[in-house]
Amino acid sequence: MAAAPLSSSGTAAPFTTQTSTAALPDSSPAPVAPSERIQLIDEEQKFTPTMGEALRRWQLEDAGFGYDLCAVLGSQSTGKSTLLNKLFGTSFDVMDESRRQQTTKGIWMCRGQGMNVLVMDVEGTDGRERGEDQDFERKSALFSMASAECLIVNMWEHQVGLYQGANMGLLKTVFEVNLGLFQAGKSRSHAAKEKTLLCFVIRDHIGATPLENLRNTLMADLRRIWDSLSKPEGLESSTIETFFDFDFVTLPHKLLQPTEFDSQVASLRTRFTDSSRKDFIFRPEYHKRIPADGLPHYLESIWEQVQTNKDLDLPTQQELLAQFRCDEIANAAFATFANDVKVFRRPLETGEVLADLGTLMGAHRGKAIEDFDKAASRYHAEVYKRKRLDLLEKLNSTLSPFFLGQLKNLHKKVVAFFRASVLEKLRGENYDFSTVVSSERKKALIAFETGATAIKLKDTDWAYDDEYEQLKQSVDDIADQCRAEETKKMVLQIERMVKKDVAEPTELALARPKADMWDQILVAFTEALEKAESAYMKKARSFNCTEEENVRALRTLKRRSWLSLRAKIDEQTVDSILINKLRTAFEDRFRYDEEGVPRVWRPDDDIDTIFRKARDETLALLPLYSKIKPQEPSREVSLPSTADDAESASAVERGEEEEFDFPASLVVFSETRKVELGNRFRKEADAYYVEAKRSTVSSIAQIPYWMYGVIAVLGWNEFIAVLSSPIYFATLIVLAGTAYMIWYLNMTGPVLSVGRAMGREVHRVTDAKLREHFSQPVPQPAFLAEGNRTASSTQRRSNVTTGSVDQGEEIELQEKKLE
Fold first, then answer.
1. Which residues are annotated as a binding site?
2. What pLDDT was estimated at residue 786?
3. What is the Cα gyration radius of the chain?
4. Domain spans, the chain
5. Which residues are annotated as a binding site for GTP?
6. Which end of the chain is more exposed for a tag (fewer CB within 10 A), N or C?
């Protein structure tokens, strides 16, 4: 930092005014009239589009890098324009000392007289005209700091040490925004850091306080505000000297010391013009390296960045008060609002649909806004409008969960209503599925849209498009599910119909096996299947089934119908039933003749030939039963197996269908089972053969006819005795009458039952008496009794000797019983 040399009185030594030739090009243009100046940025903060033309008039458009840019910053009415006019020979307007008011409005630019220096005169800070509106002050200060090589800070001596008077608050804001807006990017890209010279010109210096002390005070204040800045990433450890150099100059009082003032200003001028001096202001490191012809665009782009930066929009005192009060009012209104609307939470969480939710939400929100408007509209208009929008957004955010909860509950209710209505109408006999679904779908969507529209509030971005699409998808899913269930139900009904139609023909054909047995069964199956397909297609039209779905359903119907037929065939060909059918077929051939008359076997009949023929013809039926094969090839049924159908194979893998092998389903039973059935049948046929043989033998061994004559001759006397005896004849008449009455009254069964019961009782009593009689002891002679007693005593003694006490006691008991 280079400071001007001080005199013994503490003021800078006087310099002579001269023009710097080093700063001018080789052929210096003629001086420009002092009155030539432009308003670079006007009072409306708009950048002038005529700067390029001004550069051409100033003959600086082709200067390249041979120019410098300087700006002045300071409080209003501190003589900034006067200082610039004296230093650079410019023609900026100066204040009328009879009226202390704003002179410079916006930012003005002028070329220094006799030098390639562009000077910007910036509107003064802390002016009464703008009051608390410090927006332009900050923007103009930041613009000057970012674009100028040297920024002259003009201030009074008595302002040193003050915060606002020395523009420290303004410099703090400008420093912080300058770091984030213009220096952070260069730090991240490792570009060379640009430095700016801050030249503090202390006016009306009377010499009581040395310049060094003033300098220390200002630097201390600058370093303190720098340390308090919020620095961007990468610049946390940077110091104020990293981006700025500082110079301090004092000037005497302009009115009280006019001669010294002019002398000091002239001396200061040489620092801007004489590049050979060590304390030359426009050193190369301060130049922004922007060619003169690109300077208008460069300055305009800087002003655009400054204009769009929100960090400079610090509030005024009125705005701060408005923010504070509006926040208080908004919080109070919101607290009342939140307490009023919390009653909606519980019903919505339980799944209830509130009929008047939209009206109530609108009323509570309107009351909150009305309360806010009534109390906050008296404050700063812009702040009031902004806070009103913030409150409205907060209210809408609080109500949004209720809106979404109502939509969710409405969605569930409409879906449940749609499902119940469709199922109710599908329970009827005559209905058109597509008409039912279309009608109920339209009702459901209208009901949802009506309910959703009723709770949508103005001034919100609420939408129910996603929920509406989800509802349509849910309704379509339910419709598809109902259609699948109805289709399945229809297929099952048709399948039962096919099963019923083929059951009787199958039973009859299998019960009377013939060569064309399978032809009859397959003809009946084909007719039933055609009837079923026709019934399906007639009903499928009302389901809006696609061609692919129809093909799949018909294929499933054919397979299930065939499996139903196979189940019926398996039912009729189980071992017991099939053996019975074979037995019946054998009996028809063996026990009945060609005319269906039962055979009565005689000794001269050829039973063996008839038996072999009936047996062989019956065994020939087993191959017919074992495989479904019609005589006419045209009557064969062809169905695709799951292995031949890729779609069915995938369904089998997913577990949706069972594996189906049509060729294998044509085999009713295997060869092994056929052999077993043949063996079982042969055994039963042999039993019929033996029975027939026995019947011929019994007919041969019958009683001779002459024997009846012998019986009549031998029993004639007894017959005459009964007829001639009144007692026998009366007894015979009574017995015959009793038997007739029993037969006539149909009491044969009860009489027989009573007779059998009496017989059993007589048998029981007789048996008991006989057992009682034969269980009594037989008397013995005396010598035998004595011998038995002696033997018993001997045995008892032997038992005592051997320790068999129990047997001895038993013997004693037997002896007592004998005595």
1. 74-81
2. 52
3. 65
4. 37-91+103-312, 317-463, 490-697, 707-774, 782-818
5. 74-81
6. C
